[in-house]
Design goal:
This protein is 55% helix and 14% strand. The protein is an alpha+beta fold. The protein is rod-shaped and about 145 Å long. Keywords: Membrane, Transmembrane, Transmembrane helix.
Length: 312
């Protein structure tokens, strides 16, 4: 069934034909400009249009041609973009929604990646470090203090060692209470070093082998009229291997961890050892002292003086 036009409206076919007329006029822009430039009547355009359609074998009623000419002048069939404003902006956004969605998705992905990266690389490690620090101050270090002081008391009854242990434990506990992690760790490390020292056993032996001096002498800078005498020694453990010792040189006051050092002795002891070696090239009585387990001090078999050096 053919569609009928509503009252007051042109039939659809008439509208389509009128639009085609306008389209024809627009494509024949030279014709329009020429005819309008001559300020001719609409009849001239209608006549020209009738000729164009007749050449194509199409018969167009005059009232359709008149509607087309009138529509051209009124721009009835020309799309006019909406004026700038919110409505136009929303319409453009809807048209470009695919591109906007892609760009928005990329932006959201970048933001999410940044947040996740910050959380993973910065916040989470910081929180773990804070938790580990809190646990160290509340559990690990106090436990170490208790364990080490108990071990020291079990291995030694040396008053000097026990006093030193109590002092270090008090320092550690104060630092823990103040949440001074560096001071607490140092005090615990010193306790551990004290416990290790008390458990050590060795002999201090005078070195007597080719290529290494047995004794050295020094003229101190502070008193050029005197001379200091030293015996080169090493700490030998129960298994016969040298043991590292931390020795502070009296020449530069620097502490070094060494297996060999020179212990200062009286001139008489130095001369006796020198004479011993001169007999056959070997120091027969090479034991200078003994360090027993549970003691801090070395029991010297020969008389020694305070002071040592680590290079010569």
């Amino acid at each position: 069934m053919a569609e009928t036009a509503r009252p007051g409206q042109a039939p659809l076919d008439d509208l389509m034909m009128a639009m085609d007329v306008v389209d024809t006029l627009r494509h024949d822009d030279a014709l329009v400009q020429r005819e309008l430039g001559r300020d001719l009547s609409d009849a001239a355009l209608i006549t020209r249009l009738r000729e164009i359609y007749a050449s194509q074998g199409i018969t167009v009623p005059d009232h359709i041609l008149e509607q087309g000419v009138a529509g051209l002048k009124q721009d009835r069939f020309v799309y006019a973009p909406p004026a700038a404003g919110v409505s136009r902006l929303l319409a453009l956004a809807y048209i470009r929604r695919g591109r906007i969605a892609r760009v928005g998705g990329i932006a959201v992905a970048i933001v999410v990646a940044a947040v996740v990266g910050w959380q993973t690389l910065v916040v989470a490690p910081r929180e773990r470090a804070a938790a580990a620090l809190a646990q160290e101050l509340s559990t690990v270090l106090p436990g170490d203090v208790g364990r080490l002081t108990a071990a020291i008391a079990a291995v030694s009854n040396d008053p000097q060692a026990l006093t030193q242990s109590a002092t270090l434990a008090a320092d550690a506990n104060r630092a823990i209470a103040a949440r001074d992690i560096a001071a607490a760790r140092k005090a615990v490390a010193d306790l551990a070093a004290l416990e290790a020292e008390l458990n050590s056993r060795f002999e201090v032996r005078i070195v007597s082998r080719p290529g290494t001096p047995t004794g050295v002498t020094r003229i101190p800078d502070v008193n050029r009229s005197t001379r200091n005498f030293y015996l080169v020694v090493e700490a030998i453990g129960p298994d016969g291997s040298p043991i590292e010792r931390t020795i502070t040189s009296e020449e530069d006051r620097k502490a070094k961890t060494v297996t060999m050092w020179a212990q200062r002795v009286p001139e008489a002891v130095f001369n006796r050892v020198r004479d011993d070696k001169a007999n056959d090239g070997i120091v027969q009585n090479a034991r200078l002292g003994t360090k027993q387990r549970g003691r801090l001090a070395i029991d010297w078999a020969m008389k020694v003086e305070d002071g040592a050096i680590t290079s010569w």
